[in-house]
Amino acid sequence: TLKTIGHQWYWSYEYSDFFNIEFDSYMIPTAEMETKGFRLLDVDNRITLPINTHIRVIVTAADVLHSWTIPSLGVKVDATPGRLNQMGMLINRPGVYYGQCSEICGANHSFMPIVTEAVTTNTFTTWISSL
Fold this sequence. Notes:
By secondary structure, the protein is mainly beta. It has a single domain (2-130), classed as Immunoglobulin-like. It has one helix at 121-130; strands spanning 2-7, 10-15, 21-25, 47-50, 54-61, 66-70, 75-79, 85-90, 95-101, 113-119. Strand 1 and strand 2 (10-15) form a beta hairpin.
């Protein structure tokens, strides 16, 4: 289970099935970008999820309406304050998937990217154990 919380103007994530691991994910400002990466798309903390595993995603917001969207995975869920929206997904291939907030939520709405790294189950287990 991945819990996703939209804030003005970043995302928070909780892996509650694994010792309640929590972190925030902010867009990397252009001035701090290294030579690699995508401008306005990369974040400081990526979501890491296992492939070929049914994943439950719970989405909410802390302040205003947001929408958690990853187009290449066919995922779009509204994040509404005071409400938990749930959906399931299955990622078939390893890779990096990019998304964004798709609900106009204020001045910095366009600075809320989402980056999901899909890895093998063994890699995911190693990653989650290292936190």
